[in-house]
Amino acid sequence: MQQKISLNYAISQRTSSHRLQVRLWLYLICIMVFAMVLVGGATRLTDSGLSITEWKPILGIIPPLSTADWLDAFTKYQLIPEYTQINQGMSLSEFKFIFWWEWAHRFLGRIIGFVFFLPLVFFWMTGRIEKQIKPHLVFLLFLGGLQGAVGWWMVKSGLVDRVDVSQYRLAIHLIIACFIFVYAFWVAKGLAPIKNISAPLWLKVMAPIILLLTLSQIFLGGLVAGLDAGLAFNDWPLMDGAVLPDGLAILSPHWINWFENPKAVQFNHRMLAYFLFVVVFLQMLAARNIEGHGGRAKLLFAVIFAQAALGVTTLVLQVPLNWALAHQAGAIILLAVTVANWRAMVGSYPD
Fold first, then answer.
1. Per-residue pLDDT averaged across 262-289, rounded?
2. Are 217 and 223 spatial neighbours (Cβ–Cβ below 8 Å)?
3. 290 Cβ neighbours under 8 A, 6+ residues apart
4. Distance between CA atoms of residues 160 and 152, nearest Å
5. What phi and psi, each to the nearest 5 degrees, are found at residue 202?
6. Which has the closest alpha carbon to 176: 147, 149, 155?
7. pTM over 0.85
8. What is the mean pLDDT of residues 210-238?
9. What pLDDT is attached to residue 193?
10. Can you tell me whether residue 144 is helix, strand or coil?
11. What number of H helices and E strands is found in the chain?
12. Mean pLDDT over residues 11-33, rounded?
């Protein structure tokens, strides 16, 4: 009997150790995806995303190393509409500035791929990954590959007939990155020992709804970025001097205003922000005294309050780079808090 207890204890300790290793690895991936989103945001805000006109998944990791290489890359950039219609006359040094932002974005994406794939193989081959976790990690690997392809699909939209990338493809690229972050963080939190504290059904239902609303708000933010909609209508709390501004439905068919009318896109981003803020505030009021859940509800409200303040500041200052990136970072932090909030109600993976 004593030997059996000792064996079970040893197995439990080994499982806990393996879970900790996998969890820390996934947290590292989350941090890197967080950085990737910020670099991607800076790439967009500096209009750098079209500076590399080719997709070389392997050799593209090597930047231009000589003057001839730089001139070759610059010559290819000079053939696309962004240069001929907007940046004609740009110097080589100015081109290098936008090139390095885009190269850094792609380089970080490749590094994330290596940091995910190599430890995945090691953990898998050494039996550190539990059977119930394996499908989640394979799916994450698939999402990473898909994200790379979608990134190039997005860039291609700005190389021929447009001077920038499609706002649809930009928003999709952003939301996939956020979903990768959410999924990796969800799995990682599930590997942590979570004290199972019962919660009312309404609270369990609200947790995934808030996460879905947050992802929807980020998607709308991607459309705002894709249309440069934040550079206009910079008054607040009114918009263009009114509560309900004119010009929200000037395109036909009507639905297209939701995606292609900068004024309507920014208005929708504001309205969903208000709605999400109210939902989180009401949840905080209702849950503030529920043992084990009140603290998380208050934290969630504090984060969304800070994110709303960052959003308003970014808008009224007409989207300066530092404030815009802070707002983008706030969105990912908000995602992390919403995922942790939901995961705490679901509990960790069974041993």
1. 94
2. no
3. 199, 200, 203, 297
4. 14
5. -65, -35
6. 147
7. yes
8. 94
9. 82
10. helix
11. 11, 0
12. 86
